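Kindly go through the following sequence and its backbone structure tokens. Advise at your convenience whether the structure tokens fit the sequence:

___
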Amino acid sequence: MKIFLKTEDEIDLMRKANRLVGATLAELGKHIQAGVTTLQLDKIAEEFIRDHGAVPTFKNFPNPFGGPFPASICTSVNDVVVHGIPSDKQVLKDGDIISIDCGTLLDGFNGDSCYTFCVGEVRPEVMKLLRTTRASLYKGIAEAVAGNHLGDIGNAVQATAEAEGYGVVRELTGHGIGKEMHEAPQVPNYGSRGNGVMLKAGMCIAIEPMITMGDRKIWLLPDKWGIITRDHLPAAHFEHTIAIRRGKAEILSTFEDIDQERYYNQTVN
């Protein structure tokens, strides 16, 4: 599958799409509290995205195993790793964590980012999982420079997570991104340094560690979308879309709005 290098004009459009994703996640952070349903969050996200002239990319996204995704965001609570479907029956409670994955299509280009939020006060061991997962994302980004390889990114993520005894999901990966939400190449969260595709300036990829507190083994839920840990221990998921440069990678998405507002009792940084 061909890897498309982006021009500076295209990267500028991708930056705008990804900044909107960051703003959407920050808007959702204002509403994350006990008693809120994940379907309420989905409605807030869709309205916010459309009000800003974009389309929620995830809505009606095709699934080779079943029907299209029915919502605008993925809401993965506690032991759900990714692709949780928002529901009016799923009510957040104190101590939960919720990973919200969001995508936008704006002016022909895609944005994609994920953040794991705390609902009220979470246990210290869960907070450690979140902080380590976020740290592993930035360790991976630090390796994402022209001349390095995909294996350098995966190795950095894997080493950071496994040093704390956590599991690294193998079956799901990051991905290239541009005019399509999912482009080549796949970006694993594990690997060996020097292996895999060589990174070139102009490549745009989404790096997204999916890290489990316990065993890395996962199940597919009956809805054919949600992925859950087999041991039912919590999982965390953080994601940035980046542009490869000859020097330091440029992060096109952002957590700044979330971090500055500190919408919840504990911050993950």
The chain is about 30% helix and 25% strand. The CA atoms of residues 84 and 200 lie 33 Å apart. The domain at 8-261 is CATH 3.90.230.10 (Creatine Amidinohydrolase).
